[in-house]
């Protein structure tokens, strides 16, 4: 018996391929999708239609659908480099950087000169905190395509992320010269300039760029960011509005503007913000930023229900981008107190006479750490380091290995270098709360201040804040945020019991209600001389780079204390879980 031979797959005619490409280029996404679906049924073994469907889904902001289509395209035609590069790009956008790296390396194994695959691999390596590898691949990109503005941009980003501020600055300036209005890496360029020459130099360079290129929206936005950090809120608002006049799709400019002051119902930018938040054809994380900005605006004008709806819509978009296991996270936190360390050698156990004494400020994000550090920074004996992760990275390594010696050396050296001759430094990198034993054992003179809010206020602050989903995946669901808030407090209770003589607990609500008694008591507990300036943190001149940059410029106030209460009914799932977990709340 002879079985019938299968019919060979009929390839998609070149004319149909060209027609699909023209539709995408013309922005006719729905038409391209419809035709690609029809052709895919006629040519089910041709990967081109799946690739077009992936591109259409990506342009519509549906990351998961794009991934599914690109994966099918690669499965049907693994030899086509463009399909693999598109899959890697989509994986990067969905924050699955390890999978992106694997997909892109497969492409480059057979097509080492493929520009998009190499570019996307550099991005994946940067996100995976492997900047040295990223630089090597960026240099390979330069060899393949020459010193084009795009290749220089990719190399400059990699160099800056690798900590090479001088080379990163030089390369980014060369990339910028090619097309200032379309250049998007002004934040990295400004960071390199600041690290070399200080924050004022970064502002001067950005002012020079926008003077010559007022249409450079990303430069205007970064200028707004820098001016806001420096405390010049009026000039920052002008810069943000100029950025949005040039490009009304910059969600981060809307976010920045909303931090400076309350929105007014008649603000001429509100219609553009509402339109941006409705636009489903953008990246999910970008639309989430627009929704967070809109939520703030709606709250400011008194539409609390619509504001909360926008907040949770934004969180839903971000939650879809991360694969977060809340049970595993909570379990991991509960096991941290069991970490064991090797005894610290005598030469490391004693602080050098000239070494500054560290104070670590611990808390959940959005719980008042910026205000607390700004208060302490007004003291003449204190240098505030902000959210500096230098010591934290060594502390994490010590928690993993049990070896404290490297942490002790690195922390003493870094603090001495940054203290500017003052005897005390503060470090408010928030994740330090997860490695208190390493810090406490390696730095016997270290003190810890734990500031906490009413758990309901803390949970709502996390839900309404546009925090990076990869770094804070617990903030996008009411029950998950409640579980994390409660688990974090339990962990802090363990540390406070273990290192009771070195810990100070500050309740945010008490601090803002009675600062005249709370602050002197805190200074005494931290063995700092009395200082009246600490009662006026708004007069401090140091740059502030957190989401609270405008709040701390307005002084100590109770105006932000009870915002969660406007949504008490909508927050019922979170509040119920907090109560079940025994999280600390204030009586109403």
TrEMBL record:
<feature type="repeat" description="TPR">
    <location>
        <begin position="217"/>
        <end position="250"/>
    </location>
</feature>
<protein>
    <submittedName>
        <fullName>Tetratricopeptide repeat protein</fullName>
    </submittedName>
</protein>
<dbReference type="InterPro" id="IPR019734">
    <property type="entry name" value="TPR_rpt"/>
</dbReference>
<keyword id="KW-0802">TPR repeat</keyword>
<dbReference type="InterPro" id="IPR011990">
    <property type="entry name" value="TPR-like_helical_dom_sf"/>
</dbReference>
<dbReference type="Pfam" id="PF13469">
    <property type="entry name" value="Sulfotransfer_3"/>
</dbReference>
<dbReference type="InterPro" id="IPR027417">
    <property type="entry name" value="P-loop_NTPase"/>
</dbReference>
<dbReference type="InterPro" id="IPR026634">
    <property type="entry name" value="TPST-like"/>
</dbReference>
<keyword id="KW-0808">Transferase</keyword>
<dbReference type="Pfam" id="PF14559">
    <property type="entry name" value="TPR_19"/>
</dbReference>
<dbReference type="GO" id="GO:0008476">
    <property type="term" value="F:protein-tyrosine sulfotransferase activity"/>
</dbReference>
<dbReference type="Pfam" id="PF13432">
    <property type="entry name" value="TPR_16"/>
</dbReference>
